[in-house]
Amino acid sequence: xxxxxxxxxxxxxxxxxxxxxxxxxxxxxxxxxxxxxxxxxxxxxxxxxxxxxxxxxxxxxxxxxxxxxxxxxxxxxxxxxxxxxxxxxxxxxxxxxxxxxxxxxxxxxxxxxxxxxxxxxxxxxxxxxxxxxxxxxxxxxxxxxxxxxxxxxxxxxxxxxxxxxxxxxxxxxxxxxxxxxxxxxxxxxxxxxxxxxxxxx
Length: 201
Fold this sequence. Notes:
By secondary structure, this protein is α/β, with parallel strands linked by helices. The protein has one domain (7-60, 67-200): P-loop containing nucleotide triphosphate hydrolases (Rossmann fold, 3-Layer(aba) Sandwich), CATH 3.40.50.300. It is built from nine helices and seven strands. It has helices spanning 7-15, 23-34, 45-60, 78-91, 108-117, 126-134, 151-157, 160-167, 184-193, and strands at residues 38-41, 71-74, 99-102, 121-124, 145-148, 174-179, 198-200. Helix 5 links the parallel strand 3 and strand 4 (121-124). The two termini are 21 Å apart.
């Protein structure tokens, strides 16, 4: 844990036996802390997500004082969102940061209400996040991190436009795309969204 200084985060990682110690994870963590867009081409998805979430928590540390999320994560399907949520709950424990899930099988009105009540992190599928964003359900003015997990699956199940249209209005933030390898839809997304990304394989 030598690259992590936030004591509550260290305690959470140790309590839940979540490691951020491989060369691959440390490279991901360092990029989050230094800033700049990032393309991760590696099949170690869980390792990457743990490192990235740890980096987000260390950089933010405390909950926001308004309703605008600072982290937006897009994943391929409902279960992927739930799996990321489970890791976030462990990694962010006792920081009081609020999260909400947005995906198709959950009632849209409830999701809008959750967002209006405020959330530090939003985790959702491309289609539902896109719908809520363009219905003014997601305030992206304070966004610091945008992460697309399993980009090829995300864009096969949805549309490249569901992601790229949102990012056109984003404030300056760090954008991260993850996929096991460079594939057709991932390449289109990278070209449209990332600016001079570091590539970690």
